[in-house]
Design a protein that fits this description.
The chain has 276 residues and is α/β, with parallel strands linked by helices. It is built from eleven helices and nine strands. The longest helix has 24 residues, at 82-105.
Length: 276
């Protein structure tokens, strides 16, 4: 299936989504907001890959929401129906929020390879991914403040969990650029690579390591990490005990040990497809 704003290739258990509108700084058009969750849900529900990588072509990862999205439906309320217009606009925002929530909801880990700017909604996107990696020229900016609005599609609930709250507040209040090295220092990105080429090579190497492991175990790790983030330690410990009681797979454990003894890569079955 082809998409308007990105390409999707699946090989060696890795799904690679690459934003391909470099002449427009990979801005997020209306098609993007519809297509990205569709692609992610397809990969997740169909168990078509074991890990998802998101990267981009050109100078910037993404400049954020395209101006056409702001214009569609108009931000101007009907003077005679201000409250009714506000209620409709709230639902429009909630639809946009679902686009990035799909990344968090996916059964597979999602890795972001960020070059140049991750601006505005780009921050919302990458904070919904499992892991973030950057090139040396990368930067992050909560740009919404500079254009007179409050970021509303994911920045605040996710960014404040990833980095010190003071830094999240400073980024939002000032709309300043956070450079790659500082982003690594405060924990927003795992690693910084010197060039765009080295970035993608490094992230794909990490994706291959993930793809070698039991997909059931990796999916369980993601589910536990998400649950533990949002619940108490006691609740998370209880949930992981229930998870393993139901889904610990002896065959995968046996294969891991046998493969190690035979000095070969283990071979694991994929997750089963589920209904969309």
């Amino acid at each position: 299936m082809s998409y308007a704003c990105f390409t999707l290739e699946i090989a060696d258990h890795i799904a690679h989504i690459r934003f391909n509108r470099p002449d427009k700084a990979n801005s997020m058009t209306m098609e993007f907001w519809r297509e990205l969750p569709e692609a992610i849900d397809r990969i997740s529900n169909g168990a078509e890959a074991r890990v998802i990588v998101i990267s981009s072509e050109g100078k910037h990862f993404t400049s954020g929401m395209d101006i056409s999205v702001f214009m569609s439906g108009s931000l101007d309320a009907d003077p005679g129906n201000i409250q009714v217009s506000a209620e409709a606009f709230r639902h429009k925002i909630k639809l946009l929020q679902k686009t990035f929530s799909a990344l968090e909801r996916a059964r597979q880990p999602v890795l972001a390879a960020i070059q140049g700017g991750a601006i505005g909604a780009g921050v919302d996107l990458v904070t919904a991914c499992d892991c973030r990696y950057a090139s040396a020229d990368a930067f992050f900016a909560v740009q919404e403040t500079a254009i007179g609005m409050t970021a509303d599609v994911g920045t605040f609930p996710r960014l404040v969990r990833l980095i010190p709250e003071g830094w999240a507040r400073q980024m939002a209040y000032t709309a300043e650029r956070l450079p790659a090295e500082k982003a690594r220092e405060i924990g927003l990105v795992n690693e910084v690579f010197e060039t765009h080429e080295a970035l993608l090579e490094g992230v794909m190497a990490i994706a291959r390591k993930i793809a070698l492991h039991s997909p059931l175990a990796v999916s369980g790790c993601k589910a536990m990490a998400n649950y533990s983030r949002d619940h108490s330690t006691a609740d998370a410990l209880d949930y992981v005990s229930v998870w393993n009681a139901a889904m610990l797979r002896p065959e995968d454990i046996k294969e891991a040990f046998v493969a190690k003894g035979e000095k070969r890569q283990p071979v694991f079955g994929d997750l089963k497809p589920i209904a969309g």
